[in-house]
Amino acid sequence: MVQSVTEVSTPFLQSFADAFNAHDLDAIMAHMTADCIFEASAGPDVDGEKFVGQQAVRQAFEAVFNTFPDARWANPKHFISGDRGLTEWTFSGTKSDGSRVEVTGCDLFTFIDGKIAIKNSYRKNRVITS
User: Beta partners for 106?
Assistant: First the structure.
């Protein structure tokens, strides 16, 4: 359950990670502010593709789950310093064409009033050759 205090803790970030691994959009969005921002690891801009607000962010996360129905963020490790935080993870997933992705990455967070205001994602760009 999302905590109601204004300071974010590592159990809060673990709960967020657990919600992603459960593909539970309601639980994910409950961790985020109404005006939240998600900066994806890829996109047309220098900072990736940016999604602003609960509806746009929710749709972006839903698209990830649709692209990778078995998406999983394994071995999350969390770090918090004041109103900033970091979670490292190993992402794995399989697209509908059978191609598999496995990369390490991290999310940089900015917190406001005990929730995630900005989720800025980074991940390795892995090239596999046969």
Answer: 88, 122
In tens, the pLDDT along 6-15 reads 689 999 999 9
Read off the amino acid at residue 4. Answer: S
Q: Which long-range contacts (CB under 8 A, 24 or more apart) does 57-63 make?
A: 57/29, 57/32, 57/119, 58/25, 58/28, 58/29, 61/20, 61/25, 61/28, 62/25
How far is it, in rounded angstroms, from Cα 120 to Cα 44? Answer: 15
Instruction: Examine residue 103 and state whether it is found in any structural domain, yes or no.
Output: yes
Tell me which residue range forms the domain holding 60: 10-123
| SS3 of residue 45 by DSSP | strand
36 contacts 118 by C-beta, under 8 angstroms: yes
CATH of the domain at 59: 3.10.450.50
Contact 31, 95 (CB under 8 A): no
Q: Is the residue at 45 inside a domain? A: yes
Number of domains in the chain: 1
Kindly state whether residue 130 falls inside one of the protein's structural domains. Answer: no
Task: Give the global pTM.
Answer: 0.89
